Amino acid sequence: xxxxxxxxxxxxxxxxxxxxxxxxxxxxxxxxxxxxxxxxxxxxxxxxxxxxxxxxxxxxxxxxxxxxxxxxxxxxxxxxxxxxxxxxxxxxxxxxxxxxxxxxxxxxxxxxxxxxxxxxxxxxxxxxxxxxxxxxxxxxxxxxxxxxxxxxxxxxxxx
Amino acid sequence: xxxxxxxxxxxxxxxxxxxxxxxxxxxxxxxxxxxxxxxxxxxxxxxxxxxxxxxxxxxxxxxxxxxxxxxxxxxxxxxxxxxxxxxxxxxxxxxxxxxxxxxxxxxxxxxxxxxxxxxxxxxxxxxxxxxxxxxxxxxxxxxxxxxxxxxx
Lengths: 159, 152
Known about the structure:
The complex is a heterodimer. Chain A is mainly α. Chain A has one domain (2-138). Chain A is 66% helix and 0% strand. Chain A has 6 helices and no strands. Chain A has helices at 2-5, 8-31, 33-42, 48-71, 75-98, 119-137. Chain A is globular. The two termini of chain A are 24 Å apart. Chain B folds into 2 domains: 3-32; 47-151, 3-Layer(aba) Sandwich (Oxidized Rhodanese, domain 1), CATH 3.40.250. By secondary structure, chain B is α/β, with parallel strands linked by helices. The interface between A and B is large, with 48 and 43 residues.
């Protein structure tokens, strides 16, 4: 188990995969924030003002976290953010499906006619969450392309 | 995970907020857009009809009901005499409307108020030349609750 968590090639692969996915997912949302706000509103959990705030911040958070993973800028914090986003979204998907919503996912494109939500999406997200959790527990912060961001290793907490 | 990572994650959220609000302020989109977001539809001028009106059309037999849900849901129950034209299979099955006059009243419905496929299908039908398309927004759930004629 320890060797998997220290395997730099595997860690890099997972980082590029997860980071790349989030960068791609963020682009259409950044370009079309109004459409993304409508997609968020379609989940019928929050109102229009909050959906606007979500559509304003979330795509950039996805982009920054994705870049962070790939470029090695705070990769663990990026993995933490991505895992939290994925977990929240998966819960939202499950609630939407349980309520019988027939809506577009709003994940990679803001076209309301494609990428509908479904149980397959939940399974995909669970796989991605596992990758995120894997990154949280890795022992290696390899391939930091900006060494100046590297700080001393974390001190173990005494909690 | 640990305090440093949590701090950095918080910094990421703040930075994303700054970038997002700056971008939308400059481009006048999203939060700074003049229009409020609305549920996604592709046909803003579409007529949405309530249950009473849908029932009138049904009883007078002056409209064709179209069920835009998946075939599986349609098979489990639908408004009597309604035909199935699932939104995601529109291209494949639109020939089901061959022979129907373009001015026929078409009433599209999906599961209920929480689905949009009826609106999206109605938009496609309007684009393809049907001039009298309406959406029964209460959909199958409202019809079933009112115990109106249905079939499997």
